[in-house]
Amino acid sequence: MIKVERDNKFERVSGTSVGGGTFWGLGKLLTKCKSFDELLELSHKGNNKVVDMLVGDIYGTDYSKIGLASTAIASSFGKAISQNKELNDYRPEDISRSLLRMISNNIAQIAYLNALRFGLKRIFFGGFFIRGHAYTMDTISEGVEFWSKGEAKALFLRHEGFLGALGALMNRDDLTTDLLSHRFTQQGTEDLFRSSTPFSVQ
């Protein structure tokens, strides 16, 4: 996780080992999917409520005293503890959905806590785990919205696959001094970001 103040002034302030690799690795072990895209596609058809323990499962309703809806996840994969089932008794679709929500929520919370630490309101997300996947972005956006009580905002890179290439291009002295190159990189950078928007994901 990198805190950016302005051009050429940034620092790495934190990080997490739980991300896209975790999603793919655990997903491969638990569902036998052969690729990251296959695992994502599988999650579209799943229902995490079959696997996750919700607030409503514990209290029977909302826990309004601390602002938790009955549909909030109390424990990812928590129902596997109380149910007399084996791995083969769960659908791979539900497992992948639960795994996706678990990692997305974790990333959102860690990112917000770092933003809070430095008094930041805008949090940009990018990387192999997201890749424009609507449900992932929706979950992260909801997480940031919840933990910050609406004070912070999640934003996502539109062309994140080119982020490294743009950075390398802008770092070349023989190109950044050229006016045409400067215009190209400036235009490309301005189009790189988009704000998170509500997704109608069920």
From TrEMBL:
One term of GO molecular function: ATP binding
Gene3D superfamilies xrefs: 3.30.420.40
Pfam families referenced in this protein's UniProt entry, alphabetically: Fumble (PF03630)
GO CC annotation: cytosol; nucleus
Any single biological process term in GO: coenzyme A biosynthetic process
Protein name according to UniProt: Pantothenate kinase
Organism: Cuscuta campestris
